[in-house]
Amino acid sequence: MGSKDVKLLNFWVSPFGKRVEWALKLKGVEYEYIEEDICNKSNLLLELNPVHKKVPVLVHGNKAIAESFVILEYIDETWKQYPLMPHDPYERAHARFWATSAQQKLGKEGSWTALVKSGEEKEKALNTASEVLDKLEEEIKGKKFFGGDNIGYLDIALGWISYIIPIWEEVGSIQIIDRLKLPAINEWMTNFLNHPVVKDSLPPRDKALDYYHLSVKKHTPN
Amino acid sequence: MGEVKLIGTHQSFPCARIEWGLKIKGVEYEYLKEDLSNKSDLLIQSNPVHKKVPVLIHRGKPIAESLVILEYIDETWKDNNGHCLLPQDPYERALARFWARFIDEKCVISVWGACVAQEGEEKEKAVEGAIETLSHLEKQIKGKKFFGGEKIGYLDIVAGWLSYWLSVLEELGEIELVNAERFPCLHEWGKNFINTSPIKDCIPPREDVIAYFSFGINYVRSMAANKA
């Protein structure tokens, strides 16, 4: 499956698109990367994802797939080398549950809300994030990765935590992950960031900081 | 295949999804009725992250979130009744999962929004938004008996609330979203779906659904009134 066959429409800092990059790289699938300016969306994007008009979009031959978690499972089912999902149905359900729950509770309702709100709302959001992190600490205890010895679907799904949250913490001058209180998560973050597929894939930190400073300003009520 | 329990409430359509999935696969289960105004220790222990129904417990292990549970059911009782919920082809599966997320993340929210919005410009806009999300589903069902093809599948189960719960929301919200003129294919699909076994065997009485939604609508409206 050569690079002409597989294309990825993405935005350089998008954590959703990064997941797809990691999955393709782990499987050794060659692909063409197409950078999308999300402030000036291309006709190609609007054609390929007319429903949401968002990145990432994976194009495989004449098929277009949107939504990062949907794309991850498509990649896993299409290219069988280096399986990402666990084999056992209960473990699969567990991984799917945590992928979406962490995004919703730790991401949107937790960290992002803590970043853009103040006062009571900020406190509540930080508590929401903390509750999820406590549970993830239990999940990762005793394991190098959520997938075991190797990176799997859930590591990819949660990978944003390892590089986006530290950026948000700096942008908002807040602490979301207490590294002393959550040693297992802290270690997982280090292991994940050092993985060869992840290490050189991250967006430039300074550029990402600038991006999120601007983004938070836009979303913060005056 | 081990003991199966479902923690849920009959009025909740995410819980109905699980009953439909289990019944289609011919899996026997025990229904543990939950009082959402007084959540049980079992529910809180089984779903500490969201504390919500439905939760499936199989061989003592809990699984939460209806879309996750449906895939678990499909994978665990793979060959039951020769009825697969998800398609076999990876691209078809991706489409089904995409539309399922769309239904839960966009349709449900926009329909609810249109229902609770008070009269005026806000309501008009909300109704327009809901109609727009539903128009995508009309396109998807065109030319097919069910989203799953000839047989009910995963996406039919996820969209199933449109065939019954929606009409209650329309009544309470004094709106009309899906009718035979605007969305003929979706309307037809709804009638087929709700009249098929085992779907029609798990429908709660309409008064119960009215009471269930009324409570939520009044709560949202009173919060909005307090803020104004």
> Which strand order does the major sheet of chain A show?
2-1-3-4
In the CATH hierarchy, the third-tier topology of the largest domain in chain B is known as: Glutathione S-transferase Yfyf (Class Pi), Chain A, domain 2
Largest sheet of chain A: 4 strands, mixed
Taken from the alpha-carbon principal axes, the silhouette of chain B is globular
The CATH architecture of the largest domain in chain B would be Up-down Bundle
- Broad structural category of chain A: alpha+beta
Radius of gyration based on Cα positions of chain A? 17 Å
Envelope shape of chain A: globular
Distance between the termini of chain A: 51 Å
Helix content of chain A: 55-70%
Oligomer: heterodimer
**Distance linking N and C termini of chain B:** 54 Å
Low-confidence stretches of chain B: none
Give the structure's gist in a few sentences.
The complex is a heterodimer of chains A (222) and B (228). By secondary structure, chain A is α+β, with helices and mostly antiparallel strands. In chain A, 59% of the residues lie in helices and 8% in strands.
How would you describe the overall organization of this protein?
The complex is a heterodimer of chains A (222) and B (228). Chain A has 222 residues and is α+β, with helices and mostly antiparallel strands. In chain A, 59% of the residues lie in helices and 8% in strands. Chain A has helices at 15-27, 43-48, 68-78, 89-116, 119-140, 153-158, 160-172, 183-194, 196-199, 205-219, and strands at 6-10, 32-35, 57-60, 63-66. In chain A, strands 2-1-3-4 form a four-stranded mixed sheet, covered by helices on one side. Chain B is α+β, with helices and mostly antiparallel strands and 228 residues long. Chain B has two domains: 4-82, Glutaredoxin (3-Layer(aba) Sandwich); 90-226, Glutathione S-transferase Yfyf (Class Pi), Chain A, domain 2. In chain B, 55% of the residues lie in helices and 7% in strands. Chain B has helices at 13-24, 41-46, 66-76, 90-116, 121-141, 154-159, 165-173, 184-194, 206-227; strands at residues 4-8, 30-33, 55-58, 61-64. A four-stranded mixed sheet of chain B has the order 2-1-3-4, with helices on one face. In chain B, helix 1 links the parallel strand 1 (4-8) and strand 2 (30-33). The interface between A and B is medium-sized, with 26 and 24 residues.
